[in-house]
Specification:
The complex is a heterodimer of chains A (114) and B (115). Chain A is an all-beta fold. In chain A, 0% of the residues lie in helices and 53% in strands. Chain A has no helices and twelve strands. The termini of chain A are far apart. The chains are: A mainly beta (114), B mainly beta (115).
């Protein structure tokens, strides 16, 4: 069965400093992995996705994530935080074959300090 | 292109009442999904439609929940009778029916409060 663990429920960084949101996954199959972001009162927006191509995935707004099979990790990073990055971030896994349902992590709330 | 829309954005009802949530997917998207986030918990899958057919309803919590997608366009999720534990945010998502384009687009959610 697939599962996702986001290691931090809340991360706080200063504007201009790097962001690291940690995610570990468990999957019986070759997984597809995603990061979604939800800004207040908005829907979930796809940041980036890994689908067995390049292990370093670049997304929107300067975010990227690296798939590390040996560590079963898919951490999200950004070199320099911006105030507009404040939101809740979700690490998500799915199986391409069969059911398309997504399995979500618990979410990490990112706060940016001025 | 219009995104996924959900109505209402908020609903407050009393225990035992009935509530119907509506989701309009992106035009042309055959796949429609419902998810739910109960307070303090992760977002969980409820069910998946392909056009008007239920493909996977393994996440539906019990028979008080009924989802429909007549005509393969919009979908409704009815909770009858509502219980306190049904409170949460209900998300709808849609995607195209192509393996190479399975990205799910989410609506803003409906916040349901049962008192």
């Amino acid at each position: 069965a697939q599962s996702v663990t986001q290691l931090d429920s809340h991360v706080s960084v200063s504007e201009g400093t790097p962001v690291l949101l940690r995610c570990n996954y468990s999957s019986s199959y070759s997984p597809s992995l995603f990061w979604y972001v939800q800004h207040p009162n908005k829907g979930l927006q796809l940041l980036l996705k890994y689908t067995s191509a390049a292990t370093l995935v670049k997304g929107i707004n300067g975010f990227e994530a690296e798939f590390k099979k040996s560590e079963t990790s898919f951490h999200l990073t950004k070199p320099s935080a911006h105030m507009s990055d404040a939101a809740e971030y979700f690490c998500v896994v799915s199986i391409i074959q069969g059911a398309q349902k997504l399995v979500f992590g618990q979410g990490t709330r990112l706060t940016i300090n001025p | 292109e219009a995104g996924v829309t959900q109505f209402p954005s908020h609903s407050v009802i009393e225990k035992g009442q009935t509530v119907t949530l509506r989701c309009d997917p992106i035009s042309g998207h055959d796949n429609l999904y419902w998810y739910r986030r109960v307070m303090g918990k992760e977002i969980k899958f409820l069910l998946h439609f392909v056009k008007e057919s239920k493909q996977d309803e393994s996440g539906m919590p019990n028979n008080r929940f009924l989802a429909e997608r007549t005509g393969g366009t919009y979908s409704t999720l009815k909770v009858q009778p509502a219980e306190l534990e049904d409170s949460g945010v209900y998300f709808c998502a849609s995607s195209q029916n192509r393996v190479e384009s399975y990205e799910q687009y989410f609506g803003p959610g409906t916040r349901l409060t049962v008192t």
